[in-house]
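Protein modeling request. Please complete all fields; requests missing the sequence field cannot be processed.
Requester role: graduate student
Desired output: 3D structure, token encoding
Chains: 1
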Amino acid sequence: MTTKLISGTGLQLLRRYDNRAESVRAQLLDDDGPAYVQVFVNILRDIFKEETVEYVLALIDEMLTANLKRARLFHDKSLANEDTYEPFLSSSYYVVSKHCIYEELLLFAARLLWKGNWFIQEKSCKILALIVSARPKTQDGVVANGENSKKKGTTINDVLKELVEWLCTQLKKPSHPTCGIPTAINCLASLLKEPVVRSSFVQADGVKLLIPLITPASTQQSIQLLYETCLCVWLLSYYEPAIEYLATSRALPRLVDVVRSSTKEKVVRVVVLTFRNLLSKGTFGAQMVDLGLPQIVQSLKAQAWSDEDLLEALNHLEDGLKDNIKKLSSFDKYKQEVLLGHLDWSPMHKDPLFWRDNVSCFEENDFQ
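Delivered output (368 residues):
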């Protein structure tokens, strides 16, 4: 692998952009954004000196952080015959061909995920997530995927699957002791809206890696990690294979502990929305009743929340839990438990309504 020289035009553009005030850079990007994106991607593709790679990644990161809408520059039609993924992906995995510029960048980014130092890995992960999320959709809602390419080599699914593999690796054995897991969770929270990411994450057995992170938090940093972890679970609650795994894990008791103790509205909101999605799935409703969620919902409703979605979700959850209590606390079920010697003194049987509605039933058959 040999290092190429930066072209004269590329060097001229880079010097014009380098060490400029943000207002000047913003104007340059407004005037000719795709040209600067092309320069950045070309450098990442052709230059392998670590300091240079770090510098260009920092420029891209600063550009996107200042204005997230600039991620759309990587999808500009004028760059349709370039491959934006290539700088970031493992070159041994894919045949690099001429794709749109963002595909080329993503290829290089995923390569850097595995081979770079932590600074390079963290920046590559963040950039990947942003430009993938910004890619355009066609009129029928299908995501555009290099349809203008001259030759198909790397697909968006290839990129996302490799990114998921790296994210799962970070959750198992982080490259950085304190930043590895938060970086991976932050990226997942952005990408799990993608069907292929959900599928790949579940297939990689990634759901179980989230469960230990669902725990009450106190510091600002840990609260943000908890929120983004719960956001990942909420996104997975729309995906049936993930729901099946959540049903057999300790996810629900941990989520109940979080919503019981949390005072952060955004955390409570995303957990309650997750409960609403899971309520009608399998035995989740019964488990929620057993875990005392009806009482927690009553307590939450008494608090002053400003989020209308949260208030609506609490009302929906309250009604759904009441329906589950009615089903589970029927006298026939209670009688069967007594006769079989399997009586479970659960919250449903502590419900005053159960005793009030069924007191006469105890007098049947000579108080059998």
